[in-house]
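When time allows, look over one protein, given below as sequence and tokens. The question is which stretches look regular and which look disordered:
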Amino acid sequence: MRSALMSTAFAAAFTAAALTSAAAQETQFPTDPITIVIPFPAGQASDVMVRLMGERMQASLGQPVIVENRPGAGGVVGTTAGAQAEPDGHTITLATAAYAITPHTHELAYEPESAFEPITQFAMTPLVLVTNPNLEVETVDDVVELAKSRPGEIMFASSGVGTSHHLAGELFQSLKEIDLLHVPYAGSAQAHIDLMGGRSDIMFDNIVPLVPHLAEGALKPIAVTSLERSALLPDVPTMAEAGLPEFEATAWFGLLAPAGTPKPVVQKLRVAIADAVESPHVKERLAEMGVLPMSTEPEEFRAFITAEIAKWGAVVERSGVEPGMQ
């Protein structure tokens, strides 16, 4: 009997010690450098944003912030690595709109709605519907009218099959019941060249790389895809203002921690990220890039991701894109 009581007491003491140790670790977090996995190449807008934020996060967290680019398979390679990291908050992963698309276009080694603890969505920027400067259209209705007069002939460029740029075009076709000819490129740069040269007709693309071409008049902006106008293009209407209130296709950015990361750690990271995007220097730089900073709570971000996965799943299904077609 005495032996059983001692065993029970020892177990209780061990459990209490373990809980105390875990609580202490959470309170002391971070105890090591923070690694942010970016599942895309260096130099892209998302990479620039995260590096800007990382500098500020170092100051508030008291540990170095290391940015690790792990590109491949539309973001799947780096995201898989992030999902398999230790759930202690010291490795977190960038999520973009691609995170909601790849479940429908790639075979994944992780479950997108349960492999991570969402931390926060920290930024958003619209796509822009642009045309080559010689196309005789000025509004979304003009584009629709032209497409209906020449079904299957108006070429819409994208940065690749299954990308957000491609699926924005597919959504546009579906909502307006038009037939466009999709022309995928290996990235946006070549698509821009062909658009400017009149070898393609229209494209949905992120606002950041388009701004120089729009400023020069080399491309013509028709509408932005966010629900509100962009400060960089205040005279360009939204798709909603152009008669498509259900059309929203933004480039969004957030950070995720591996599933099982303690909630206090997630919250400490969320606060550090919010402080970073609201700091004057970072906020000014993001504004210059046409990026709207934000800070959402983890559960709000989770609900947003779930809705995005469902939304783009329906678009992918209608488009006929299947895993392995990229």
User: Anything to note?
Assistant: The first strand starts at residue 34 and ends at 38. The mean pLDDT is 91. The CA atoms of residues 159 and 187 lie 4 Å apart. The first helix runs from residue 2 to 28.
